[in-house]
Write the structure tokens for this entry.
Amino acid sequence: MRSFSSILKARGSYLLLAIGCLFLGGCKPYLTNITPETAQRNPSNLYRFTVFFNVNQRYVVPDTLQPFLVIDGRQFPLQPEADFPGLYYYDHKLDETRTDAKYYFQIGYRQRKQGTIRDYTRKTELAFFKISDYRNMSLSVERAPMGNHVRVLGSHFTEGDHILVGDYETATTFISENVLSFQVPMVAPNKSYSIFAVHENEKHFVGNLFVDHNRFSVEPAEIALNVGEKTEITLRATAPLSNDVYINITTSIPNSIIVPEIRIAAGEESTTIPIEGAEPGKGILYLSAPGFHEISMPVEVIGEAVVEDNASED
């Protein structure tokens, strides 16, 4: 017997509406198909098809209800879910070579109203059921910073498959039929994202990944240079970036150093930043970018300020 929560997950709000009609009354008789559109292939090759039938049972003539699953041109009698009135199911076996099936539900019954008995037949629309060979998928890690590569482990992967991080496309590498690798895109950090494998335009949930801030490292750890002297520092991310990242550079001594606008190009993980000493001063250089922790480094410019002599000669 399935749990009530597992049944709810099948069709969510549809089932809630159906159960509300059942207990509150006032809804016309109808069938609601709550069978998932896709199921994972299983060793038993058995798949459960479930429907909800809403009708005021006091008007149904006893022993006249005949619910069926109609699949592959054959009828199979549905069984009632003992704990959930109105729910009917059938565990149907599909050959291990099957990848899909078309089906619908049909329920016949007799109803008595005001002394008159009438025959009724209700049907659902034709539905499409797909068996997925994607099974036992998992992430190699539970969290990673932006730019890092994460592996998806599973089976039956193809070169056309790709990974979504939430709604964000990401660079995906086919490694083997059991392994895909993707690069964590530049998304808002400190959040958990649902990871999906997309196979033949269908999304398959893999798991959740918590995306951390990326981190910079800088060499050297501090700078000391003379007025007018030029030097370079190397800024490095923890992983190659999926997009261009512009570096925000500020300092507590803006008159003492000259620094140009800098970016780390997509696919790269480091860049070189030229720095020139201007006026004497001692302070801090701050380096930051969206999704990265800010880093700071001590900076000192030594010497005397260069004073231009604009006095005219006699």
Observations:
- The domain at 216-302 is CATH 2.60.40.10 (Immunoglobulin-like).
- The longest strand covers residues 100-113.
